[in-house]
User: Fold this.
Amino acid sequence: MTEPHSPASLWDKNWETYRAEHKLENTSEIITCLSALNLNSQTRILEVGAGTGGDSATLSRFGAQVVCLDFSAQAVQLVAENARALQAPLLPVRGDAWTLPFRDDSFDVIFHQGFLEHFREPMALVEEQVRVLKPGGYLLVDVPQRYTLYALKKFYRVHTGRWFAGWERSFSIFELRRIAEKFNLAVAGEYGRGYSPHILHHLRYMQGLWSHKMLGGPRLRQINDTCWGWIEQTTLAKLYLNNIGALYQKNDTA
Assistant:
């Protein structure tokens, strides 16, 4: 079995910090994309590398049965705590993503965010997810996008041994499309999301120097958010924003 390049002890420490800071991750693009699939009480969802379980907790509100898998004991405990606090009927499972502890064709929806980039052989992980996905089911992959300043900074820190997660990579939208080709999946949707807030910080600094009323804080934020909101709706989002996502559908005859 191939081992992940970020040991469980590293992620145990990471999620223990999240527990102390009471953080709960939730990605609006994932919720929007998956909630459009007519989720109901018969829908079985699997989140791989669940972390805090924030997205899963939100999806469970649509009545879906949600399983949260992670190989970090701290993450599994964090999911259980958040499930109780939010009264979300989640099922936390500690397991190995290389050999998922589920039968073939077990889930209607599988998704992950902040997961695939930590492995040197990501296609083997996707293949295992396709195995447990029902024919006609959906797989959503959300990963860091390659052509960003953030990716460049991460690349430098990874190769100087200063990245918090050890080894990590980024993807292009074209690589995500090749996943569909490799596993005979149909691309049902794509998106780009997230941008560096440092641009806004720099503009605010300049605004302070200029002391110009037209560049006041609220006005500047509104202009900034409007511009990025427009970019997120264009093809540019899949090429230049911090993260990209692809929604695939498994062939009914698979």
In short: The CA atoms of residues 156 and 162 lie 8 Å apart. The chain has two domains: 8-194+238-250, 196-231.
